[in-house]
Amino acid sequence: MLTIKKVPTVVSNYQEDGDDNNNAAGIRTEDATQSQARGCARNCLGKCCLPVSKLPLYAFKKNDYPSKNNAVFPSDDGVSPISFLNNLLLAQWEDRMRRGLFRYDVTSCETKVIPGRYGFIAQLNEGRHLKKRPTEFRIDQVLQPFDENKFNFTKVGQEEVLFRFESNDDDKSRFFSSYAVDICSISPSVVAINVSPIEYGHVLLIPRVLDCLPQRIDHESFLLALYFAKEAADPFLRVGYNSLGAFATINHLHFQAYYLSVTFPIEKAPTRRIMARKGLQGADLVVSELLDYPVRGLVFEGGCVLRDLSDAVASSCIYLQQNNVPFNVLIADCGRKIFLLPQCYAEKQALGEVSLEVLETQVNPAVWEISGHMVLKRRKDYDDASEDYAWKLLSEVSLSGVRFESVKACVSEAAGLQVEVDTYNIDQKECIYDSEAPQVASHMQRDCPAIH
């Protein structure tokens, strides 16, 4: 059994809580007093507290067709309309920042675009490695059963939750500032802060939190993540997923999302169309292969129906899970483009095949690093960061050409795709372009007063 002694990121103020001490868990005294009548008195997301709780609810219109208008209309309780989901998210996230729920101020972290063709992004985040608890993780199994004795999101305090995110049978998206939880009908899906954020607006999307799903992709949960990206309607919000063995730190199903106002390097990479199939409404669903990028990967896009795109990616992910291939997923372009990135870094690390120079950086390349946002823990690495450095690190992540060809063949079968003749070659030199986004990554300060 391959194992690595790892120190996972703290994603909740309750992650290090080993007892019922409210103050140690980060609960204010007045909050603890108010929660005495709620289950375990910690006002958590577990079955002890959630059934007697009321949380804000964003109910999205379950529409599989692309829409340019993601406006939220007034709800039945008279709450004023909100223009976009991201306005709600950012307002609530900034409210939690003002309340001191984060481990550090991520907006003070230095960030720069590294000179070069791709413009890799480097961030110096010296606070992210602090206050973590050591845990043994198996890295040789992508599928592992949920363990209620380990940290999971049912232990998160409700003050860390921004809102529920669930589908609405109505023809409009609606927001309710307070909505009773009915766990008899459905386990709620929630959006919560990551208390050790990588970037501005860093949140976790936790599907059906009370179902205690392990970290594995299924069709409905992945579709929920696509709806989240679509409903936010902001190309600077990306949604990411890490499987076990690809640097997921919590074995409880969750996606991550945050805002970064530059184009990710992976979004600039040239591609070659290699597979396709007819979608439900006749439009082609296309799968391309990344070219001239340090990590081999696939790009899914096209089709008229969101579920069609979602099912193709989810089926591919399920194949990788069942065949024990670690992977990362990046959902970009408001859910219209999805990068699937099988990787083997943890395996190589356990086998002693990663260079000492790379290991000393202590960077665990998960979805954000692979996409080109390098979160660095040491000042030296940040000051010396170059495109050659980023390329060398990410090259350690990629599957070999032989292994990747095998993955491509099996993804084609799993998703019902037809392999195409290579008639869509794109000139690699012409595909590297300068982003029109700002050349210095800035934290997105938006005029969005807190919503209560």
From TrEMBL:
<keyword id="KW-0378">Hydrolase</keyword>
<dbReference type="Pfam" id="PF26216">
    <property type="entry name" value="GDPGP1_C"/>
</dbReference>
<dbReference type="GO" id="GO:0016787">
    <property type="term" value="F:hydrolase activity"/>
</dbReference>
<protein>
    <recommendedName>
        <fullName>GDP-D-glucose phosphorylase 1</fullName>
        <ecNumber>2.7.7.78</ecNumber>
    </recommendedName>
</protein>
<dbReference type="InterPro" id="IPR058866">
    <property type="entry name" value="GDPGP1_N"/>
</dbReference>
<keyword id="KW-0808">Transferase</keyword>
<comment type="similarity">
    <text>Belongs to the GDPGP1 family.</text>
</comment>
<keyword id="KW-0547">Nucleotide-binding</keyword>
<dbReference type="GO" id="GO:0000166">
    <property type="term" value="F:nucleotide binding"/>
</dbReference>
<dbReference type="Pfam" id="PF26217">
    <property type="entry name" value="GDPGP1_N"/>
</dbReference>
<comment type="function">
    <text>Specific and highly efficient GDP-D-glucose phosphorylase regulating the levels of GDP-D-glucose in cells.</text>
</comment>
<dbReference type="GO" id="GO:0005737">
    <property type="term" value="C:cytoplasm"/>
</dbReference>
<dbReference type="GO" id="GO:0005085">
    <property type="term" value="F:guanyl-nucleotide exchange factor activity"/>
</dbReference>
<keyword id="KW-0963">Cytoplasm</keyword>
<feature type="domain" description="GDPGP1-like N-terminal">
    <location>
        <begin position="85"/>
        <end position="258"/>
    </location>
</feature>
<dbReference type="InterPro" id="IPR026506">
    <property type="entry name" value="GDPGP"/>
</dbReference>
<keyword id="KW-0548">Nucleotidyltransferase</keyword>
<dbReference type="GO" id="GO:0080048">
    <property type="term" value="F:GDP-D-glucose phosphorylase activity"/>
</dbReference>
<keyword id="KW-0344">Guanine-nucleotide releasing factor</keyword>
<dbReference type="GO" id="GO:0006006">
    <property type="term" value="P:glucose metabolic process"/>
</dbReference>
<dbReference type="InterPro" id="IPR058865">
    <property type="entry name" value="GDPGP1_C"/>
</dbReference>
<feature type="domain" description="GDPGP1-like C-terminal">
    <location>
        <begin position="265"/>
        <end position="416"/>
    </location>
</feature>
